[in-house]
Structures are given as structure tokens and as C-alpha cells.
Amino acid sequence: MELDLHGYNSNAAIIQLEKMISLAKKNKSKILKVIVGYGSTGKTHKIKDNAIDFLNEIKNKNIIKDFICGEELDIFCKKYQDFKYKELISETEKKIRNKGIIIVVL
Questions:
Q1: pTM for the full model?
Q2: Which of 28, 33, 80, 85 could cross-link 2 (Cys pair, CB 3.0–4.6 Å)?
Q3: DSSP 8-state class, residue 84
Q4: What is the pLDDT of residues 36-86, one digit of tens each?
Q5: Which residues pair with 104 in a beta bridge?
Q6: Positive or negative, the Cα torsion across 60, 63, 65, 66?
């Protein structure tokens, strides 16, 4: 599943993210690709920062298993090296390493 948060303010983006995580889990999806942008046009860095904060919070509550940002999909990145769910991420995503996405493991 995929969720594009462009066009939302940061509060509405988190609400949409929470709804989509719930829907994805109901549909038994293993991952959710969240498009957050990377801040090149202004406000998207706030969406990404808030999404990361929210995902850390729900990860600590065991609502999601883990998440990783697109720029961390690099064999030299410590977070990627320690990431337990590499096999769930497509080879295309790994090659692109888009810093405007977050992969959420449900």
C-alpha cells in the first residue's frame, strides 16, 4: 500500500498516516510506503519530521514493527545494516534511495 502526504498540513498528514496504518493492518499488508517529500519546496520537511516522530511513538507502543527512511536504504548506513525487514523492501526502492519516502513495516 502507498500513501502520499503531499498537499496536507503536518497535522492532517499525521491523521491520514494513522488512518492508513490502521487500514493497511486490516488488509494484512506487510509494508506501507509513505511519500512525505524531502523539503525541497518548503513545508514537506515538517511533514517528514512529524511523521518520523509519530512513527517512533507508535513503534515504541508496538503498533508497527519498524520503519526506515528512503535515504537510509544504503548498505553503508548503520540503520539499514541493523534493519530486520530488508527483504520486504523492493530492490527498486533500495536502488533509488528516495529521501522523500518512509517505508513502514506493519
A1: 0.93
A2: 33
A3: T
A4: 987 655 555 789 999 999 999 999 999 999 999 999 999 999 999 999 999
A5: 32, 67
A6: negative
